[in-house]
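Sample A.
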Amino acid sequence: MLSRNIAGRVPARVRPLQLSRRPAIHSLRPFTHCTRLQISPPSGRPQLQFLSPQPLSRPIPPLSIHLRKHFGRLVSTTSREHYKKRFSYTVKTTLTLTAIFFLFSIVKLGVYQEDIEHKWPSPPEWSWKSRWCLRSAQALQHPEYTNRLLTDWPMVAGYLKELIERLENVEREGAGIFEQGDGGILVEGVGLTGLDISAKSEPWRRGYFQALLGAAKAAENLEGWLTDKKQRVSAPAEHVIGPSNPRPKPMPAAANYVIHEEDCEVASPPPEKFYMKILTTNGFDTNQKVEAALAYADWLDYKGLGITAGDMYIWALDIAAGGIEGGADNLVDLKTGVLKNTSPEPPSENLMRVSTALAVHNARQGDLPTALSLFTSVLKAWRSLPLVQDHQTLTPPTQGFNPPRPDFQSLLNSNDPPTRTTGSICHEAGLMTYIGEILYASSSREHGLAWTRDSVELAESTLASLHNSPDLTSRGRCAQCLKVGLENWRTMVSALVESAREEQVESLVSAKKAWYGGANQAKDKAEQLRRWEAERDILQHRIEEVFPLLDGEGGT
């Protein structure tokens, strides 16, 4: 009994559970009436809200909150790796294309700079920054070469301002130059005069001259312009908002900026600052100073300062005469500029340039007799030169900055007489056009028209002989001369037609009152009218045929 009782007393924690053999009773409930407890997993599993139906009374959350709650569910481990690969591929592709585009831009810029360096060379002794400024400014002044409609003069002025500052800095490009006198010469309204650059090389001096002359041209075109220092844009003063201009004109449609007067400064110094610096610099040759003096005088003529312009033309004449060894008293009248044409030696190229410019100035001022004397003296000087065939002339390297060879020294010296070639005959045609205008306006219409006809024939024959010539400059100049001559010819003939028509009407009225000869006089006037009308019609037909060809030759 004892052992039996002990064996039968198994602890409850060890005793196996006896499963009930009674069948489980499950209550079936409709699927459409599922509650949270029926759908949700046991209490040990996490409760996911998106698996539980929301009560209809609860408001819909905003889209941002909705996306924030479900973003983790939408981005799984597989999609995360996919997005990483896509993002890495996109970054690599973008960086590769950017690098290719950047390198292509550098190559394109290098090719462009090499091209303009070939066309407008810069001194090789300058630094790359100075050479960049000079050739870029030169290229911008020729919009037809850079495929632009107009010249960006503010950019030209900016390049040349930086270049001049570098060239005049004795610690950089200007090592070896110094001021003239004790601290320089100060001119009222202009500032300090030119420096002494005689110790620099010829390429250096030529580049400095081009920089000053380009800055003067930019200053002429930027007169009355202001530059916004903050936005670095320029515009005429009439478009700038400020106290001095309370009602400014609207900016162009393409301009998306507004300029205020308090943020502005003058876009460029006055042109005379640069012209006077060239004229007073020690180291420029006669030709460079004559070119600057003529450009400054032409600017003064444009501004209506005729007397000051006349003085500047006389100054240019003195500079040209001073470059001739032994003096120029036997070549030109230093008071009037008329070439004497009595010396066995012809005048220099500079003297002929100055006399021609002085003749144009006198014609503008209304002094036609003096202008006619100057034009005829220059024409005689040209015709006194021997004609040299184009294949006999040597072409000097006018654009290169290497020192010229000794064979070309005489050709580069503008103090010597010019060479009369086929291309230079267009100069004579231009002078004949001027003479025809003056004669037509002052003394004789018939003589003026005859000179104009001769100038047109000379220009046309010269252009025909230059048709296959590589000298594009001479061809363009000749085409321009021919076009101007034809225009003058048409204007003169049209005026003669109107005058003849008026005279015919007057002769018809007089014929009714005249006792004798009135009918014959009316007949002569009618015949003269038909003659001028016929010449006008023939000339118009000629112009319609020639003008398209002139555009192809560079005429404008």
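Sample B, a different protein:
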Amino acid sequence: MVHLAPKVQKFDAIITKSTVIEDGTPTRYHLKTSQNSLAESEPYKKFTFGERDKNKPHKAILLVGETGTGKTKLINTMVNYMLGVQREDKVWFEITDDQSDQSSVHSQTSSITVYGFYLKESPMNLTIIDTPGYGDTRGVQKDKEIAMNLLGLNRYLGDWNNALDAVCLVIKATQNRLSDRQSYINDAVQSLFGKDIAENIVLLLTYSRGAHPKVALTAVKEANIQCAVNEQNQPVFFLFDNCQGETFLEEYQHIQEQSWNLSLKGIKGFFSFFDTIKPKPMKMTQDVLKQQEQLEANVSKIQLHDQDMEKNLNIVKQLQNDLEKYKKVVEDKNNFEKDVEVSYREKVDVDPAVAKMATCCTVCEENCHYPGCWWASNLSWCSMMKANHCTVCTNKCHYTDHVKEAKIYVTKKRKEKITDEILKNIYLENKKKISDRESDVKEWETKLQDLEKQKIKLVMEAFHCVHSLEMIALNTDSLIILLHIDFLIEKLKEIKEPEKAEILEDIKKRAGEEKHRALKYMKDKYEKSSGQGK
């Protein structure tokens, strides 16, 4: 149980460190805090009141819940309890900054806000980690950012011991059966943590009027929210009115008194809860968040990988089509040599029955005077010569190119092979193309094989992420798994891992109808937030 310091003598000093928000009953003050100077791009803000004494016990609590459940007012309720403020003091101190008000459904901040409350007179230090409200209008991607920001929180909080004393699920006391949206939010919150933190999770039920929160507890049970339980195996919860810090007119002071007493009882019970539990290191929870991040990254990589494989496969198909076309051309054009009948001249002996001598041109291979050539031995005297040139042969050759003998030229025919140079060039060109395409096909098929190996690696890594989450996550069939489970089942079958696909099928069956309704809600939000629904 926390023992609080005397209050009266310290309020004046605290008020001097505050600014007035609103005069009235009570008068509302804003505590002057110091703020860590982080870059605007960083998803963290830290506000500190006082200076931390590291010799004091330190308590760290994390607040999570739906947008509009009143987490901000709970933070201020805790601070006023630590300060020892009572209703009769007619003061109310607030530590929350303007940007941390998560009561608006349209809240635009996605930063995690950390409040360090180090009151000198208090026997302990208190760190409150306020997550942005889940399920607002900005979509699933913003909810995922909250989880990833929690993963990197320790890097920015050098004075945090990286352990949580309590995780507070903030739920409205009037909450009845969870809608698809609320089931999604519950799943998103439960998916943040490791199994070891279940006994440190408590319910802070807001907007209560003091009645037993039967409908809210029934909704919690139906939603299978895991949290600390009492000796009757019922969820540990604390009730809050959420309006004790508001300014009331005199005639409504009795309402403020009821609100104050209810919330005081709740906050006392909550701080007493610290005495019953041990803080839990964030390691397992951080491992859960890392596995979720890795799963998301692997699924994204597999999808991009499939696109690359499809492109490469299309290239291989086109190359193979080209290859077949070139082979067909080569097949059709391989007879570029053919046999043809050609004429040629050959000297043969003169038939004595026809004539004994003939004058023939050795250049034109023609019979210039046959038959009937007379006896003159000087060929220039031959009747076929004129001005020493033959008047018969094709080239009108000089008489010295002629011979007179008992032989004549005759025309004969023979078969010879000739080459169609056009066909030959087409043939050779396509033979080269075949060689080039075969080399290209081999290169791209090697790339496809490498991509297939990478795909197998990515799919198996994604499966092991799911398997690891099964082992360490508080929420073993979370929507973040179910969102991708059909895709992973298909990919495991593609890489010939049917047994592992069956394991994921079992997770899908185990989820139940309510989870699948919430999954549909999440898919709709996921498509809208990622632009896929356009």
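Observation for Sample B: The longest strand covers residues 337-349.
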